[in-house]
Amino acid sequence: MRIAVSRCLLGEAVRYDGKSKPCAAVRELLAARAELVAVCPEVEVGMTVPREAVDLVGAPEAPRMVGAETGQDWTARMDAWARGRVADLLAQGIAGAVLKARSPSCGIGDAAVAREAGGIPVPGDGLFVLALRRAAPGMPLVRDEDLVSAAEVEDFLERARSHAGGRSR
After folding, report:
1. Phi, psi at residue 137, to the nearest 5°?
2. pTM for the model
3. Which CATH number characterizes residue 19's domain?
4. What gap in Å lies between CA 93 and CA 90, rounded to an integer?
5. Of 19, 84, 88, 156, whose CB has the highest number of CB atoms within 10 Å?
6. Given a cut of 80, is residue 166 above it in pLDDT?
7. Number of domains making up the chain
8. What is the phi/psi pair of residue 4, to 5°?
9. Smallest Cα–Cα separation from 54: which of 77, 85, 30?
10. Does some domain include residue 60?
């Protein structure tokens, strides 16, 4: 079974600050049970490491991704890249995804989305997650922070197996 995983969780230094966020449950427990397909939306769309942080601004269901200091708008590039990358991942047969919590691209219900620049943020999905949800409704998505024990990994894998089985019918 193939599972998409944020590259920073695998220990790759791809985050905006040039660091990684290795996740033991992913690297040890999940990797032993599934084929992991690494993904980093920001790097794959052409952002550098390190890079300016980006913020999500606007309506939570369709936010814009803008540079926190420069205001550079990455939305169109990220949306186009995400549609293509999600199609590629689905063609590879991914059955679920483990993504970095609170990321403006990978956050699952916990990415900060401000209605206006400098406004008070509300929780929402990152742009890559929005593309995944549109293309693969019901696909199991889990934040790294919710996948820390063997039981949680097994529960996620069971949901992914079920999802993959439902697709092939």
Report:
1. -55, 135
2. 0.95
3. 3.40.50
4. 5
5. 156
6. no
7. 1
8. -75, 140
9. 77
10. no
Residue 5 has pLDDT above 90, yes or no: yes
Q: Which of 119, 126, 17, 19 lies closest to 65 in space, CA to CA?
A: 126
What is the spatial distance between Cα 7 and Cα 106, in angstroms, rounded to a whole number?
11
In sequence order, which residues have a C-beta less than 8 Å from that of residue 118 and are 6 or more positions away?
none
Half-sphere exposure of 13 (CA within 13 A, CB side): 5
What are the DSSP calls for the chain, one per residue? Answer: -EEEEEGGGGT---STTS-----HIIIIIITTTSEEEEE-HHHHTT--SS---EEEES-TTS-EEEETTT--B-HHHHHHHHHHHHHHHHHTTEEEEEE-TT-TTT-SS-EEEESSTTSPEEEE--HHHHHHHHHSTT--EEEGGG--SHHHHHHHHHHHHHHHHHHT-
Average pLDDT over residues 98-104: 98
What is the Cβ-side half-sphere exposure of residue 31, based on CA atoms within 13 angstroms? 14
